[in-house]
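During the second year of the project, the team shifted from modelling isolated chains to modelling whole assemblies. The rationale, set out in the original proposal, was that interfaces cannot be judged from single-chain predictions alone. As a representative example for this report, we include one of the complexes processed in the last quarter. Its constituent sequences, exactly as entered into the pipeline, are reproduced here:
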Amino acid sequence: METIVSLVATGVGKLIELIPVWVAASAEKKAEIEAKTRSLVAGLDALFSAADAKDDAATQAARDAIAGK
Amino acid sequence: MSAFKRTITLLTLLTLGGCGDIMSSYYKSVSTTAIAAVTCRDVLSVAHEQKTAAVVEKAKTDKAGAQVDLDKWLPTYEKIKTTCTGLKVGSKLALEAAPVVEAAISKKKDAMGWIVRLGKLVFDAYATLAEAGIKIPGVN
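Output from the structure prediction step:
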């Protein structure tokens, strides 16, 4: 019984020691994910504007062809 | 596997992958939506390029027919464009809401609500693209 209690206590002690490591790893990972997400979302407007410009030019080219220009 | 099932699987993996930290899952779902927005806009642009090139080609011999083709395509183009913009706006709004979600007492519930909403946006976008007969590379 004494051995079991000792093992459990040691196990609990090890787990408690690990908690700061888990928290640190999680926070670091979260910061990385957040930064990547922000970078991705920040680039959306430029990407959409470029696509709009390209598509508008293609539409105009089609209209010009129909008009015989 | 259908696009719907693939997306469900992807979102589930992304969500469950960060069970330990709900905000990581939240940011992952925002990223997924942003990537879906980029894919949606890219696929639309490629489709538009092909359609307008076909119109230009047809206009060489049949201007009236080319006009009909263009008039038929443009409303579909606008509809898909609105969907893609919806994804973009959705991901931006979700990102802006992140501090509020994180600070909220019931943040888990709020974050899950956003994840579900973003997931629905992605499903709707794929459905709109599929309805227009546009294939998404790697999805369908």
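Residues 63-103 of chain B form the longest helix (41 residues). Chain B touches chain A through 38 residues (CB under 8 Å).
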